[in-house]
Specification:
185 residues, mainly beta
């Protein structure tokens, strides 16, 4: 049985059919069914979050001088939230008619990837109004009171009221704000 391999196939001296067969089998194995789901492809980074896809219900009080605001990605796709918000005081009318506050940034900003339904929070801290009812400012300035604020995020503004239905009261025109951080959904 010289020149024959097991199974009755002829041996050849050329390596090309063997190489071609191995390459073909390799391609079939690589491109076989089910591999597309297992393949890890590089996805393009998510675009920046736009204000139109972000929602927030209210400002949650965190003591007498601060609020936590959580924004939620309401879709249609994932996005990246970066940096710090802008903040302005407003009445009950249009968010465009507001009084901007100077934001003192607290901490380091990092990009926050928000899947649809994902949440990110910022903490705002005001210089508190002291005393009861007709409070006063330690600096001697007049207290400022407003029923809502406008959180600037994603190129637009979200107008919010405190969750307890009260007003925002502060001394001065400055607010401290943390960078957005991801939070549980």
């Amino acid at each position: 049985m010289k020149g024959r391999a097991r199974g009755g196939t002829a041996r050849t001296r050329s390596r090309w059919p063997v190489v071609a067969g191995a390459v073909t089998c390799g391609l079939l194995l690589v491109a076989g069914p089910g591999t597309a789901a297992q393949e890890t492809t590089r996805q393009a980074p998510a675009p920046p979050c736009a204000s139109e896809q972000l929602i927030a219900d209210s400002a949650q009080r965190t003591g007498g001088d601060g609020v936590r605001i959580t924004v939620i990605n309401d879709g249609p796709g994932a996005c990246v939230l970066r940096g710090f918000p802008t903040v302005a005081l407003a009445g009950q009318g249009s968010p465009d008619r507001n009084t901007p506050l100077k934001v003192v940034r607290q901490g380091q900003a990092r990009p926050v990837q928000l899947e649809v339904g994902g949440r990110a929070s910022t903490q705002l801290t005001f210089t508190p109004v002291l005393g009861e009812a007709d409070g006063y400012c330690a600096s001697g300035a007049e207290p400022t009171v407003a029923p809502s604020l406008v959180l600037g995020v994603g190129g637009g503004g979200l107008q919010l009221a405190p969750e307890d239905g009260g007003d925002f009261a502060l001394c001065g025109t400055t607010v401290r704000a943390t960078a957005f951080r991801g939070s549980g959904s």
